Protein 1
Amino acid sequence: MKLLFGLVTLSLLSSARVVLEPVKQAHIERTATKGYKATSRADPNHLLELSIAMKIPNEKLLESTLYRVSDPASSQYGQHLTFEETHALIAPEDKSLKVVMDWLQQHNITGIKANPSGSFINAVVTVSQAEKLLDTEYWTHIHEPSGKAVTRVLLNRTGTQHSYGVPPSVAEHVSFVAPTVTFPPSSIMTSGYRKRRAGLKEEPTPLVTPPILWKLYNITGIGKGTSSKISQGVASFLKQYYEYNDLKLFWKKYKMPGTGFSWTDVPKSQKHSPVGTEASLDVQWLSVSGQNINTEHWSTEGEQPGNPENEPFVAFLTKLSTTASPPTTFSISYGDEEDGVTESYAVRCSAEFQAAGVRGITLLAASGDSGVGCAVGKYVPTFPASCPYITGVGGLSGGSPGRSPTGESVAQLSGGGFSNYFARPPYQDSAVAAYTSHSLPDPGQWNHTGAGFPDIAAQALQFDTCTEGFFYPIDGTSCACPAASGVFSRLNQDRQDAGKKGLGWLNPMIYSGAPEQAGSHMFNDVLDGANDHCGAASGFPAATGWDACTGWGSPNYGKLKDYVLSLP
């Protein structure tokens, strides 16, 4: 993968310091629009868990290996690497680790490998130590809408853009350090969209229930439960918890079996309070499309009493990389505006997505609830859905259960467009070329060479969800992501039952199979509507084949099952 950023020396830092994450004005403005305000210098004794992301020395080999095991046209399709082989592939050189460990030791800081390869180094430090190590200032930032506090680097000091720096000898080996300049998303996508929905001109939609979703996407049968080696996972962040009693009420209402499969919390110490709408939605609806499949709820808080503060998405990625037998499929309803993270951060995280794919892990991420984004200047993509090494899931509404194709329409909220950080991957070339032959929005608003997203889509409005004992209709691509993820959990199990390997990274299979199987409607093509731009459905329009608001459309489980079982 081409590295899209360079190292810059910042004059405000001490001499001979290199900035790993250059902070652009757009990033500062995005942090402000999230609602964060710097209030005071951080307590010098406040604890941080620094994660130092080491550079991957064999980036090109990692990417080529991923394509070999993920492309159905490859003779090595499905031959995923083991846990040990993957870590050997991404391991930094010994000299790189020594440079970083010595640098930490010079500051009386002990670094430890966060995973077997050492691709992340963790160190628990005080704010005072971190400031000296990185030649920067940490401030307490209050998220004004919620009152929550986070400790991050001050981005704008006396009107000047600021970041953090490391010695040049260290910069040669490190991609970024966190937590520093990346701030958590201001709200969970679902709840944020519910507040904005009144401004969108969408027709009321009927309640989505499990029987409707099953019929709409041709989902039949149930998983094998504890007799299967297949599992699925929900990634939750920012103190989002579900309540097991809500889950049981949901299963009871829709006559779903609540036994015969395992349900595991990671970590087991989750307190399930306060109950979050996002987590409730994710676990309940993943259990609908992935019914009776062993499920894990992975919670990464970012901060909890008595523990050092960390960067939650990085903590999730390091936990994933250290787990020898993680879920086969993950639903990730977590996202940020692409310019809400730095390019350095996004590109390095993409290497972790690739490493997961090499192991055969399937990752899907919600495409966001702001359409193309409403900002001055170019459209605003959503990370991580904009990354080509993860499968982005957009939003739909309407449709006729039992019909093929379903006749669904774009949910105006559906995030979609083209990345400003990631170049378009080869597997998208023909699909994007066909799409850009249509009449599209102002060409000055979007990146014509960027990776397109989403890759697929699913229903995203009016999902009946139980939270704290009551049922509410919920909107957002956070509905679509678990709904689609469960379908691919089933497909992974179908391949296992047939003596085949799991699907792993989906995108090469989707982009080669969807046009090849267009006549069978393996995906329900969406032809009606466009996503949102500042309250109007004037973003990217739906079109035949792939488009930048619904991808290839919604999954037809029965047809997909036939197709994936035909693959080697």
Note: The first helix runs from residue 25 to 33.
Protein 2
Amino acid sequence: MARSPGWVAPDLQVEQEDLDALDTRSPPMRRKSGRRGSLPAVMSHSVPWEHRRRSSPDVWMSARAASCSPHLEAGDRPVAGSQAPLVGRGTAGGVRGPVSPIMSPAIRRKRAQWLGTSADGDIDLDLETLRDYIKDDLTPLQNAENMLKHIVESGRLADIDEAVCRFVSNVLKHRGEASIPGWLRQSSDGGGAHKKHSLPGEVGEEVSEWLRTEFSPLPNKDATKGSFKGKVQGILFALRLKRTCVPPPPPLSENCAPSDFIPFEISAERAAVIHDVMDKVDDWDFDVFELRDASGGREVEVMGWTVFRRWGALDEFSVDEDVLKNFLKFVADGYSQNPYHNGTHAADILQTTNFMLKTAGVSQFLSTSECISILLSALVHDLGHDGLSNNFHKNSMSERALRFNDQSIQENYHAAHLLTSLCADKSINIFQNMPKKKLALHRSMLIEMLLLTDMSKHFSTVDDFRGVLETNGRDPEAWSNDTLKLIGYVLHACDISAQSKQEKCALKWCHMCHEEFFNQGDKEKELSLPVSPCCDRESTDINLSQVGFIRIIVLPTFQMLGQLLPVVNEHCVPCAEANLEYYQKLVQEQEEREGLDEK
């Protein structure tokens, strides 16, 4: 059944004769809250049907008139037994029922006057759904333009955008070519050829062309009238094109200035050394320990400055360079001098994530906001780590465990520590100029990704990703609704990537990690707590533990990621297999020595 709900503007004064023109014959049927066809909660079943219209005429008109068809001419009467269209989507939810397709001429005129359309114009919209999106001081065309820009620039479709798409489509359809926004219009140059304007943000000519043909009445011999479902699919397609229109950043040039990759004052000699190290920032065999030595222990700032600038974080955050420098200094200072969970680990995971985005090709599946978000999450994913596991905090009933109720204790702490610190200090707050909706999106992605670095969620994370991978395959378009699962899995893989790096780095990470484990074991013994696995320096077999870790955790994780990203199979998986073979050889040699000792 075709839907043609209209919209009564919030400031309309409805006369009693207009109310009488509505047919309220049929009682409503119950319907679940939030689904299509719902009315505001004030119209609940607790109010007798025969009293609702009289008890709340203003609310009644906003709800009932939104479902009335505007297509009947003045003087028409409802056809006996006719079935009315469904009411547009509501946010409060409650009930719905069949109503008459009549809207009085007075209401049609008043509605048309506010919308700037003819009285027969159809603006398919629910006032309650888009109340927060409509600005009273703007015309419908201006509201439509702002909504469309928001959808394209946000990089993802939310549930609310179904109503937004419908509104934008109908407003542009009824306004005519002269009222189409300039960035959607084809204007003639001096030679008579059509010059095409791209969308703000340089999202690409393909996106602009599609929006012109789908959301405007501009002549196009190949254009066909599509359904609303087709329009939504088209917007998804536009978003995917937008992602491919943002190329990965170019490599560092030989003649780049030190300020391009170093956020602090430094001598020319040291800058040259750092440049030589950072020249491999997009490679899997990048050595973060060389960066630590070259930068004098400021690897977090150098890596963060280089990566964030290259990926356009300053524009995404809308902050100046000083704020980003202050933020990077705050993050670097926020990492404790633990043997493993320290600033070097943070810089390493940030560089690994950069490799995944640029070299392995994850960026082709993501929007710019999602690329920046996973990079930010990689940088801060262990911020404030105290070198102790969640298991230790839980068993010792520490303040962190009590604060977060034993649920992903460290991961919740990292997220909370970051966000509370940013709110408390404007000089480091990279989110301070970000629009509220974009901020909410970044905050949501950040929290979700940090929580997925909890190792106790490893197998569920792998299972979830396996299911999505089997469904979507390698087609970037098929992943448009599952990008959060993708970036969460990628960040988790980067977090456990130490034993999939080249042997020299992998061995260093192995000893650093076990030193931290052993420090925890010593503390557990002091507190008479159960010693966690692999944390007893007297009994733990380091080589054997690495064999199990790589074989059960690391290798399967990267093998599955390699099914989506062939580069991972070419670079990461072979390194993990080589390291596994190395530790297996050491275990075998140790067993042979023990066998000789027994003889």
Note: Strands lie at 29-30, 95-96, 186-188, 194-196.
Protein 3
Amino acid sequence: MHAKDAATHVGHGLKNYYFKYIKPIEARTHFDKFCAPLMSEADFLCAPMVLLMGQYSVGKTTFIRYLLERDFPGARIGPEPTTDKFVAVMYNDKQERIIPGNAACVQRSLPFKALESFGMSFLNRFEVSEVNAPLLEHISLIDSPGILSGEKQRIARGYDFSAVVAYWATRADRVLLLFDAHKLDISDEFRDAILALRGNFDKIRCVLNKADAVSQQQLMRVYGALLWSLGKVVQTPEVMRVYISSFWDQPYAIKECEALFDLEKQDLLSDLKSLPRSSAVRKVNEFVKRTRRAKVHALICETLRNRFGIFGKEKKQKELLNTMGDIFKHVSTKHNVPTGDFPNSSKFAAIMKNFEMWKIPPLKEQEVQAIEEVLGRGVPKLLEQVEARKAEQKQQAQNPFFGGDSNPFDDVQLGKMEWVVSQSHKSTYDQKFYSLSLTDGKASGGQIKQIMLQSELSNPILGKIWQLSDIDKDGFMNDQEFALCCFLIDFVKSGQALPETLPDEYVPPVYRQQQLQLQQQQQQSPSSLPPQQQQQQQQQGLPPPIPQDATTAAYEDAGGAW
């Protein structure tokens, strides 16, 4: 069974259990006011979510662009607080669009129905950005507003930021806390947001971004200071995992720790790759956590309701609110429930005072038994079915990391894919490139031609290298095209033969999404596409198909320097 199929099968099973046995109890006991909003069908069937949090200008939006290898609708990047809203970046292979928050929360195919509980002020600062990026078929990314430090800015949000973060924490499969090497202080709002993640600390991964902006000696001190700051807030005996690197498509500014940065990148990307493969188990884990909380909540409400007589209900309610800790101990002893499953008694009482406890509908013994049956037999049976189906397909299964349909990332790589041009070579080529006179980040063909002629290769060979390197056929080259050009020159000078067409690992990362779309459209030979389709591709910014036996004259027609 494919990882995605397993998650879908488990999602359908959990959805049936929830709507039949759990949701009716949650609705009657106002569980959504105490813990988490009621769930919808889309919540069980959506892709794993990754929430990005951090102070402004630490690189959250740039990190998403790095993963997607492209921009997405609504992306804004700058040194000031640019992202002023929550943005859910999700998959759509039919059209790329932005869905405003009020429309997104009523769309049944999206898992955002529960966001209505945060009101119009929040929905006006929430949107869904749908993008045709292969990565988003397997995970969704949640960009958050930059966390501020001033009290005035916090008040101006118009909604409870910590409550929204707590909601996303229950829904997300991974939470990335991003820090800037020059912004290690944890403001009051950031502290409240981290504390709102309590109960979900196992999902948190910390990222020390822009680590290439400091020297190796300074980085040691920055890393230690970050752990010290986190320890004061989180207050757990375990040390949080911190990934140290610079997540964007530019070369490292300081290269003392280049090898470390590359390894840290791979570790974090591998962690994100594992999310779809373990999605089914995590869905079960979150469902069991929620169901246990709902059961404890229902038992507390039933105990409180039974304490009321015919008269003096208001006075009795005040008495019960002041002795909520004792009520919890009674419920724990009577129903054999671990004390760790109970909420904070003070916070529970503060919310419960808004309800008339004696009016809460009674809890039937059969309903409690049904919950026990779901946890004791229903959920394990779901997992057994998944394992049984996997066993049936074991003979056909291949390596889950590098082949076969069982790996949802067979055709998708995160961030910079394994480009044939290594980071060290790219840095060397960049020194030449950025010494040129650039226009909109590109160098003209005439300048690049002079550099290419220094290789003393023949004009036909150089013409072929230009054809392969000028991906968008505009007669100019950006830094990645230039790096590929220099690599191919060194490749030929080492005695190797040029490929007729660029292999996948040779295509610069910035163009791979365009190449993938082009390959999906071309079911026939590129040279046999009708002229109308070729013209349409050129209008979309895709490289026009060139016949295998094209000559140097054809390169000139395509806008090359030769």
Note: Residues 457 and 493 are 8 Å apart (CA to CA).
Protein 4
Amino acid sequence: MVRFDSTVLFKEGQMLELKSVHRAFASIKYLCNAGAKVVIVTDWGEPNGSTRLPTQSVADYLSKFLQVKVLAADGIYGRVQSKQQKLETADILLLENLSVYKEEVANCPIFSEKLSSGIDIFVNDAFSDSHRILASTVGVVRFAHASVAGFHFEEELLRLTKALEIIKRPYIAVIGGGNLMDKSSALCHLASHCDGLVFVGTMAFQFMHALGLPVSSGLLEVGAAAEALKLINLAKERNIPILIPRDFWCMNSENPKLLNVFPAHDLLDGWKPIDLGPKSLTDISSLLSESKKVLWIGPVKLGTSQEKNGASRLVFTLGQACANGCLLTVVGRAACKAIKEVETSQSMQYCFKSAAVVWKILKGQSLPGVAALDQAYPYVLNWSSIYDDPSGPLIVDIGSGNGLFLLRMARTWSSLNFLGLEINKKLVHRCLESVQKFGLRNGHFISTNATTTFRSIVSSYPGFLLLVSVQIQISTKVTIGGECCKGHSSRQSLTCFLGKERILWCPLFRSGIISCLHMKVFLQSDIKSVATRMKQQFIRYGRGKLLVDVDGIGVEYDGEGWLKHNPFSVQSDWEQHVIDRGDPMYRVMLAKADGN
């Protein structure tokens, strides 16, 4: 399933035909060429404020760009059967407009599950929505085997990261728009990193009010004066300028065609500011002429639809700065539209239409759409320096905790390699000290969030994965694998401890641990009802690939359908404790279903 970014296709309800649009189709074309069946989900607005474009019209338009037949689905709920039938005659299916579903913005889990039903891999290619928590960008990852970024998504993220990280001095931020209260933390970040701030939108009035200048109450935000003073004091501490307008073009309230220029400290009653005045633009031009990096975010508007020529004058000034080697980053639809009207060096500018995404990053907050995706482990592992024989079978323990179970196994089985993945850095440090203390060359621990990094870590290992242990809470045990561990089977295995009454297996499927088809699943608990629910839900989320194994090696069931013994001959501290106290264990083995 591909979450497509419809903003590259539509503008004020009209379909666009631009060369830049083709970048957005790169992921879909790649998947189709690789033989995948693709389900596209996206949203689109209402052209001219009237009725929305029908799904079939959008599907036809996508077909023209992709040069592949795109079929329109009949809604989202209850689409599973129709989807399977339609994908038999086409490779791409477009679901109904997401904007008609309130469950989308509510990130409804039921809606997310319906949306992703029958999906193996989720590809998010809608970077412009990465700041929002939506069912189609965040909720669906719980139900997909893998969740990755599309080519367009990745390109936009890398471009934005590069644009914000490059530092050239002087660095000036030109800030338009309003809503100072919501953006105060981002403005503090800019004030801490820039060499000057220029306010060209309604935020300027909040600073004028904080400095004691008369401002109409209709232009003020409640409580914004205190935030403005905090920014002013921060700028004074760093000895950087905060530039606010010295004059404005104003419109007469009774005669809108009558315009005049007034100084900022002497705005008359009955005159409303509509644009920056000539002195203000001269001040801005003087400051930007020496800059080597400029971030322009937000429109040059003062709360009215009317304007003089402030935006065009600012664009002209920025064009001259780019010609002198200034790096320009433009954020927001209005700013991007304005900058395209002047010729500037494309190598010297970055344009990002989604201002909300950039504001969220400047606030120091993570993007939900990015955080939801599977993450790659950021470091290159030198397996030869970790293990004596990096080609040997590997056993991974996820959530290794204090590491005692893994360390005991490593000391017992010297022919196998053991890797513990634990998010608690202090525990990992202690485990590594124990590895050094015992002189183990077949044991290692890494501090990481294995739910998202497991795939990238294990894929770099030169040998094969023999067994994976996932420990969440010590109460219930699940093992996924082939033959007994001592037999060194080449099939993957999994042991996981889960202690919740309601068990959701989606995170395990999402992490890629059990997405392999050549595996068996061993479930074990000391609570009969929990073991029963595990079996039922595992089969459900296995999507027909798993059935109860009755023919496997070492499996022998009692009269109630529970295994008499643990066929793996590997016991954790918890399992041994249950046996020692004389309580029964309820076990079952699941295996790959024939024909899957």
Note: Residues 321 and 568 are 70 Å apart (CA to CA).
